[in-house]
Design goal:
The chain is α/β, with parallel strands linked by helices and 283 residues long. It is built from 13 helices and seven strands.
Amino acid sequence: MGANMARRLAEKGFQITAVQDVRHEAAEALAAELGCHAAQKLADVTAEADFILTVVSDDRAMRDVFTKPGDNLLIGAGGKTFINFATVSPSVHLEVEAAARNAGAAAIEACMASSITQARQGTLYLILAGDAAVVERATPLLEALSAARRYVGPTGRAAQVKALVNMVMNINTAGLAEGLGLGDALGLDLTMLREIFSQTGANSRVLETDGADMQNREHDCYFSAAHAAKDSGIAVSLAKESGVRVPLAETTLAQYQRMIDSGLGELDKSGVAELTFKGRGAK
């Protein structure tokens, strides 16, 4: 995601000064492509840029890049603006915003309800939160990356919305896998079944993106089962904190956790069909 966002911004005339990744070889390859610096240290990224974009995997990674002793993005960060695109817990975004403020910097959320292809095309859907003035200051950059944007309020709100988006998406994905798996067991033509789903109440965006992949066992990763489990886990935690029962979300989380436990966590989320079709995948 981060690499494709950098490519898109470069094409739109923004100067990419530095890139950094835990896999330094990946940063070096992208830097050679874009003609910028592959930073070894996080602090070097901050030193070289006015806007710093982060795309990380989970809460721990987010905390590490902003607060890890010895090297982090907030070293020398006075006057800098951080735009954080990852799906992590709302509380972590609040921690980062407070830490950035203490360092004389600003941080906003720009949660992405899109995938790798949209990052490359600049057609992301962005859910924005944080100080409205900072969001406004970052608008030219955000416009270059997205087809649509929605500001939802103070820091933490975007992460809450994104968790709910992915909770519902993951429930839909698991439900579609069960419907197609049962259809297959009944001997139905799955292409016919998907066509009928598309014209009825069984239709969904997930049917468009994942239906054929489930049928054909093509699970190249655009959004991994491991990430699906992480995001459903965030939503389930928010539900527990709010005193709301979410049995479908809990069951879906268990399905994606089963994929991880079976060694299928790096498949695309469509790989949940490996749990529901007879004669397939997981133990």
